[in-house]
Amino acid sequence: MEGYLLKWVNPFQRWQKRYFILNDNILTYCDQPGGRSKGQIHLKVAGINESKDDTLRIIINTGTGQILLKAANIDEKNKWLIALKKNQEYCQRHQVFNYGQRIQELLTDIWSNFALFDEQLTYLQEKATLSMYKEISNIIDIGQYLKNGITLCCTLIEEEKIKLYGESDTIYESFDFENEIPLNTQTSNYTIRQEEYKQNQLENMNSHQFLETIKLLNPIKYNNIKYNRVYSRLSITNEATRKCLPYKQDPDEKFAFWPFLKECIGKDLTRIPMPLLFHQPLSALQFFAASFEYYDTLKQAAKAEDPYKRMAYLIVFSLVRCILGIDCQKKFFNPVLGETYEYFTPEYKVISEQVCHHPPITAVHCESEDFILSITMEATVGFSGTSIKAKLPGLVHFRNKKTNEHMTYSFPSIAVKNLLFGKMYFEQVGEAIYTNHTTGDVGILTLKERTSEKDAHQVKAIIKDRNGNIRCQLSGYFNKEIYANNELIWKRNYVDPESRWYYFYSHHILQLNHINEEILRNIPQTDSRMRSDMRALECGFKDLGQEEKVRIEEKQRERRKIMEEKKQQHIPRFFKEEYDSFSKRNQWVYLYNYEKEKHLIDLDLF
């Protein structure tokens, strides 16, 4: 059977017309008859269902995602549905049944349904009246009894399944493992698999015990981990750091920009949801902590004896954020209102909070024994047709604890060029002013639009004293090295060639979204690390990540709608708004209450 059907592509391209050909157990589709194949769907193990919401829709569950098809009318839908199911039934009757895979599917299904069962009973218990509470508690006890019994049965089945690796060929082959273990190595492989199984059981037990420790302390965080489709696929470890991301990301991955971007011309991009594949797995809140890979540079801005050197180091540190857009051409996730992030080391602390949604405003507080860095980041983003430009008003405040100096600086604009043609790149454009309000010194950094590769990333800045005399000149390239009065004051860290598979992240940046038991125990449920869409992206679960991103955004919209109906306003917890006499704008000032109150947050964002 063959013919045209509509196929759901993504939230931006929506339904697209495709020509489908059903042959044997494979459903192939292309743009038109005789055209190049755009994809195949294997029906042997797929789930084929009708939609309750749309009588013209057919849902094919492949095991890793859903394919949505739509017919022109009921008769056409029924013909395709009958043909698909008949074809699948014929294939299943004439195949060697994969018992191993079926057992694994059943076990997965049981664990998923038990998680749902627990969630529903907990919900009912919270909503129950006093008279119903006892009956629901009895149901919960019965459910736990059944769960324990089935858990034991499933565990025994898992053990028996593993033992079959060491049995006769007949039993072994009945599981259809495609001879993955040679006969002369069955014993050793069986031993290895036993150890792997025991290790997995131990990890699962440890994860369960860990979750139970936070259940009473933070039930929102507990539910967000235990019942989330992304976190249910992960194993939480005690590893302090990591050397790479869980998934190798193709650095040359292509995405059809135009079908999406043509709808954005002239609009404020901060109000338009972006596809998951536009992103890298970091929130904008984590972006500020990324600059602290060069913490020593900022420390020199506080400790250098020469006041002009101090400003020179501050200028260099402010350029570090430019490095993050050189190799990785993907945007950060927009934080949701109330999202927080903490990054603590023995030398410094970074605390950030999304304090406003429209316009998006992020407040950041960074502190060490030498300095305090305060940032209020507000962005207005527009699309001109071939490029995106972001304007960043406001000032960054740098307070030197040693000298009591107070310096401020502004951000140049950010441009994203060659969206449609050529190689896309990020560029910092414009002028940034650095002012020492204690001494009267002024620094001027000029970042010009590149005209060729030769002048890309070029740095030119001057520092003048209060009388207008030039006291220091900076030159160089922020992707290599920078000089102050011909003296080398900064050099870019070594870039590991393997980092190209991980969004070009350095070792420091790899840690920003890392989680382990200790981190999960200490962060609030609003921390960026708890975002399941980012976690899915860094693990390579891209379809699931897109679904989670949409879910989180819809949850945010629903929360905003409820607050508007109740005439309520979101009140940031860790920062307050004050008038800044230097920038003549309002800025957000840290309240020094994060560590005391972070576990009192009652928001459920993710």
From TrEMBL:
It comes from the Eukaryota. Residues 1-89 form the PH domain. PROSITE patterns: OSBP, PH_DOMAIN. CDD domains: PH_CpORP2-like (cd13293). One of its GO terms (molecular function) is sterol binding. GO terms for cellular component: cytosol; membrane. Belongs to the OSBP family. This is PH domain-containing protein.
